[in-house]
Design brief:
Layout lengths: L1 H13 L4 E6 L5 H16 L3 E6 L4 H14 L3 E4 L8 H9 L4 E4 L12 E5 L1 H16 L4 E7 L5 H14 L5 E8 L4 H15 L6 E4 L2 H13 L9 E6 L2 H8 L5 E5 L4 H14 L6 E4 L1 E5 L4 H8 L5
Parallel strand pairs: 1-2, 1-3, 3-4, 4-5, 5-11, 6-7, 6-8, 8-9, 9-10
Antiparallel strand pairs: 10-12
The chain binds beta-D-galactofuranose.
Beta-D-galactofuranose binds next to helix 2, strand 5 and strand 9.
Pfam family, one: Peripla_BP_4
InterPro entries: Peripla_BP_I, SBP_2_dom, YtfQ_transport
Subcellular location: Cell envelope
């Protein structure tokens, strides 16, 4: 019995005695679902205990979850903050309890000593890449653009709008004629696109810029129901590179997407491990890479690979 216990020791050593609280926004998009899947995989691979809280996209639920994690004395907190403001008080409570907080995929307007690090893409850059794609694709031709914004007040909605506008500024042939939030969901993307089509007339809309693929996929349905060809009558560029975006591009129903990795947790947990082990302080921003995909890529093959990854 002793021999078998000793034999198991190395495995026991691998299982850390850390407990982490993760306050996730919800499951508003395929990308969000993938981030949850990957985060749970990354945590399990490190033998960490996870307390998971889904906020159904409500900030008050995230704040309650953080207070619960603090009361339970977790070793660290991961949070994807649904909006950018209103976090100072609860982050100060975590700081007072000596619990490090790491931000995933969105940032907050709070003093950066209130969180250990933020693992995000360059959200402004993503918007710029989308805008530059349209600048290049239109090559000087006039284009009336409609925009589906992400969740109001969220850092991706603010930054992706800024980046896109920066890229098209100075190109007077490109004009955003309608812009409204679709809250990052397929259903709202469809509803708002229907209102754009009704207000403008499908023949007067040249392109859609959606802050995420899920709103674009919803909009594609609305465009088809209006008797128009998405990807041809109305060009579509979005962000996330979820499987259904690759499929839409493969089917010539969408034109471009910018990849956002769902694995924010890996870099976050590596930074946390170093911090807890010997106090190594990570940079305040750990940036993940972005990549443009267009019809020039083998989107069908990429779809086949990605569809099994928890989206
Ligand atoms: C961006 C992330 C966004 C995704 C959406 O970093 O916060 O939230 O682009 C998700 O799909 O809803």
């Amino acid at each position: 019995l002793l021999a078998s216990a000793i034999a198991l020791m190395p495995f026991a050593a691998a299982a850390s005695d850390l407990t982490i609280g993760f306050s996730q926004i919800g499951s508003e998009s395929g990308w969000r679902a993938a981030e949850t899947t990957v985060t749970k995989q990354e945590v399990a691979a490190r033998g960490i205990q996870l307390k998971f809280a889904d906020a159904q996209q409500k900030q008050e639920n995230q704040i309650s979850a953080l207070r619960s994690f603090i009361a339970q004395g977790v070793d660290a907190i991961l949070i994807a903050p649904v909006v950018a403001t209103g976090w100072d008080e609860v982050l100060e409570e975590a700081q007072d309890a000596d619990i490090p907080v790491i931000l995933l995929d969105r940032t907050v307007d709070a003093p950066d000593d209130l969180y250990l690090t933020a693992v995000t893409s360059d959200l402004v850059h993503e918007g710029s890449v989308a805008g530059q794609w349209l600048v290049d694709d239109m090559a000087g031709a006039d284009c009336r653009i409609v925009e589906l914004q992400g969740t109001t007040g969220s850092s991706p909605a603010i930054d992706r709008k800024t980046g896109f506008e920066n890229a098209i500024s100075g190109h007077d042939n490109l004009e955003i004629v309608r812009s409204q939030t679709g809250d990052f969901t397929r259903s709202q993307g469809k509803v708002v696109m229907e209102s754009f089509l009704k207000a403008e007339g499908g023949d007067n809309i040249c392109a859609l810029y959606a802050h995420n693929d899920d709103m674009a996929v919803g909009a594609i349905q609305a465009i088809k129901e209006a008797g128009l060809k998405p990807g041809t009558d109305i060009k579509i560029v979005a962000i996330d590179a979820v499987p259904d975006a690759h499929l839409a591009i493969a089917n010539s129903e969408m034109n471009a997407t910018i990849e956002l990795t769902p694995n924010m947790a890996g870099p976050a947990l590596d930074a946390l491990a170093a911090y807890l082990a010997d106090g190594t302080v990570p940079p305040k921003w750990i940036q993940t890479e972005s990549r443009l995909y267009t019809a020039a890529d083998d989107n069908q093959a990429i779809y086949e690979v990605k569809k099994g990854l928890g989206y």
